Amino acid sequence: MVVLNKIYTKTGDDGETALGNGARVAKHSMRVTAYGTTDELNAIVGLARLHAPEEMSAQLALIQNDLFDLGADLCRPDMESDSEAGYPVLRMIDSQTDRLEREIDAMNARLTPLRSFILPAGSPASAYLHQCRTVARRAERHVVELATMESVNTAAVKYLNRLSDWFFVAARIANDEGRADVLWVPGANR
Known about the structure:
By secondary structure, this protein is mainly alpha-helical. The chain has helices at 30-51, 54-74, 94-108, 124-147, 154-174; strands at 16-18, 24-26, 118-119, 182-183.
């Protein structure tokens, strides 16, 4: 259980922060960048929820919880030492990605196929979902880069990859099931 009775600790004043295993690293480390970007994404998902229909808002709430799970996973390096932690270490699992895939398939079945690229615009919910999509892609790039340097749970990478797809399809749903998508017109302003 998490207890937060004091918000500032002053332990990060020197430019370092503690990881989930207690190790101290620079705040600009790739691991901190990776889980910090998932936290940024979670905040934008909260904004999207303000504009999303009820069913989608409920799905976004699940995603927000998943993103906290993802942050917990990423902030604890050294998956090999999980058994020595003395408590159950929270890691992303494939069933979280499987849920996203089922939801993508259900949403996509309501859409007509695209014949053009679309611009990140339309309804407020769609615009925020497109922002979620781009930040999810950035988080994925950071996690993939981290994986070239340190051990990373492959289920975390898979989840982020599928999550950006989820946001894309959800953005189309939020645009009157694609009917209000704003299409890209190549070279329109030449």
